[in-house]
Specification:
Elements lengths: L10 E4 L4 H7 L9 E5 L2 E6 L11 E8 L5 H16 L5 E6 L8 H5 L3 E2 L3 H4 L8 E3 L2 E2 L4 E6 L6 H5 L4 H5 L13
Parallel strand pairs: 4-5
Antiparallel strand pairs: 1-2, 2-3, 3-4, 5-9, 6-9, 7-8
């Protein structure tokens, strides 16, 4: 049985309404929190960030599953960003993570004007590995991406890697866009 994507005039939906679609088409499967966006380009799920280091008034893009329409990702993200600007004045920032170990290079984020905000794990992988969600399965290092919607004085401070040695060595770091600086 193939899960079909119902198009709902590009609006937000409960995540349960896109669960079967994500189970079939996204390598992580369904999302269990947040809200979904569904349109003719695919499905996106946004939720409060899981990292204890990120503000709870930011959002995390936890799933993004596109249908393969040319430029569909940038078209969909443009709609989502406009929606967030109009309907969610409390949200200043959206974060997401790409997993290079499964071929997700971040090209889609770059195409949609997201900014790379490396974590210290990306700049210097910890000697113990990257942690494990299950016994014996070490996680690969993810790349963090940021989409600033509005000015947020906390953003640059929060997104700088907490590693003095890396900072002193001039390693890459998040830089606030000029329009907000």
């Amino acid at each position: 049985m193939t899960a079909t994507l119902a198009v709902f005039d590009a609006r937000t939906l409960p995540v349960a309404s896109v669960a079967a679609f994500l189970d079939e088409r996204h390598y992580l499967g369904r999302a269990h929190r947040g809200f979904a966006w569904s349109d003719e380009y695919g499905v996106a799920v946004l939720a409060s960030p899981t990292s204890r280091h990120l503000p709870t008034d930011w959002l995390e893009l936890t799933r993004w599953c596109l249908l393969g329409v040319e430029n569909g990702g940038s078209r969909q993200w443009s709609r989502i960003a406009r929606f967030l600007l109009a309907e969610r004045p409390d949200v200043t920032t959206v974060v997401s993570y790409s997993d290079p170990s499964v071929g997700h290079t971040g090209a889609l984020y770059r195409a949609c004007n997201w900014l790379w905000a490396p974590t210290w794990h990306r700049l210097r992988p910890p000697p113990t590995g990257n942690g494990s969600w299950r016994d014996g399965v070490t996680q690969s290092v993810k790349d963090r991406w940021v989409y600033p919607l509005r000015r947020d004085e906390r953003r640059a401070r929060i997104l700088i890697p907490n590693d003095r040695t890396l900072l002193a060595a001039g390693c890459p770091r998040y830089v606030e866009p000029r329009r907000f600086a």
